[in-house]
Design goal:
Number of strands: 9
Structural class: alpha/beta
Distance between the termini: 45 Å
Strand content: 5-15%
Order of helices and strands: EHEHEEHEHHEHEHHHHHHEHEH
Number of domains: 2
Shape: elongated
CATH superfamily of the largest domain: Metal-dependent hydrolases
CATH architecture of the largest domain: Alpha-Beta Barrel
CATH topology of the largest domain: TIM Barrel
Radius of gyration: 27 Å
Number of helices: 14
Amino acid sequence: MDSAGPAYAELHCRTNFSFLEGASHADELVSRAAGLGYSAIAVTDRNTLSGVVRAHSAAKEAGLKLIVGAEIVPEDAPAAVLLATDRASYGRLATLITVGRRRAPKGECRILFRDIAPLSDGLMCCVPLSTESQARFAGTYDPASTQTVSDTDLNRWKRIFGNRCFGLAELHLGANDHSLMQNWIEQSERLDIPLAIANDVHYHDSDRRPLHDVLTAVRNRSSVSQLGYELHSNGERHLKSRSALLRLCGGRTTLMQRTIDIADRCSFSLDELRYEYPEELVPDGRTPTQYLSDLTWQGANDRYPDHMPEKVRELILHELQLIEEMQYEAYFLTVYDLVRFARSQGILCQGRGSAANSAVCYCLGVTSVDPERIDVLFERFISRERDEAPDIDVDFEHERREEVLQYIYERYGRDRAG
C-alpha cells in the first residue's frame, strides 16, 4: 500500500459502464485505489448508476469505502458529479437518470437542468471546473478557448445545492496548470464555493491510455491517427498516488482534506437496498405479520377441518417465525393475492418448486403438497444462512395468463410490474 501523502478520496471516476469512455472495470479501479491507500472512491459514470453494483462487491472485498454517484450531464448546463449521502438521495438520483432515459431514444439520456432541483435533496454536488473532457467527448474542444466553467453556470448549481455544492479542480500536467489552479481558487473565494481536488479518472492505470484512445476512435467512428483534439493530450487521467496529487494541487492539503469531508457525508451503501413488497394488500389496522398469520391459520383449518396434526402446527409456527424475521410477509401476501384472483376466475394455477416445502404455502392454497404426508424441509425454501428472497413459482394456464397480467397491472400499477 502507498502510505505517502495526505488522506484522499477520489470523487470523479468512470468505469467501463461509461461506454466507449471508461477504460477500466470497476474491480480494477477499486483494487488500485485500495493499493494507493485511498480512504474512499466514488464511481460516477456518465448519466448512469450501472457501474456501482460491481464496484460495491469489489469495495467490500477490498475493505474500501465506496461512494455511489453519477456524472450528470444536462443538455443545457455544465456537467456535475452528484453523490448520494443516504438511501433517499440515492433514490432521487436514480429517478433523475430515469427521467433522462425515458425522454431519450434507447441507449441515450436527455437530462435538462430543470429536472435537477426537485430531486436534489440529500445529494452532494461536485462541479468539475474544467470542461475539457466534456468538450472532447462532444467533439467541440477548441485549444484556443478557456475550457472552464463560468461564474454564471457555477452559481446555477450553487443555487440548487447551497452548502452541498463544491468545485472540483482537475489538473493533468498541462502547460497552464498553475494559472488554472489560481483562477479556480479565486473563483471559489469569489462565489463562496469550496474547492476540492479530483482527477477525472478514465482508467485505473496509465497503461490503459492506448485502450482509451481506441475506445475514443470507436465512439467517433474514426481511426486513432485521425482523432486530433478528440483525444486527451496525455495519459494522466488515471488513479494517482496521494503524493502526486498533493504536488498537482501545489501542496494545498486543504483541497485533499475536503475530499475526505465530502466522503464522510456520504454514508449510503448498496447493502441498505432490498426489494420493498407491496403493503396495500393488508387491511387497515392489521400488520403484514398479523394478516399473513390470520390467512395461514384460516387456511390450515380449511385443509384439516377435523383435526390439525401437531406436526403441521409446529411447522406453521416455525415458518411464520422465520418469515417474520426475514420480513417476507408481504411477498407471501402478494403471491396469495394472485392465486386467490386466478382461482376466483376459474383460471387453473399451481405453485411448484421449493415452495412445496412450505406448510404456509400449502395452507394459503399456493401449493398442493400436504406437509403431513411427507417430510418437508422449509430451509430449502427460506434460509437465514442464504439471506436470499424466496422464489415461489406459480404456473397459470397458458390461454388465460393474460388475465392475470392485466390484474397485476390494475392492482399494483403497470410501473411496478416487469
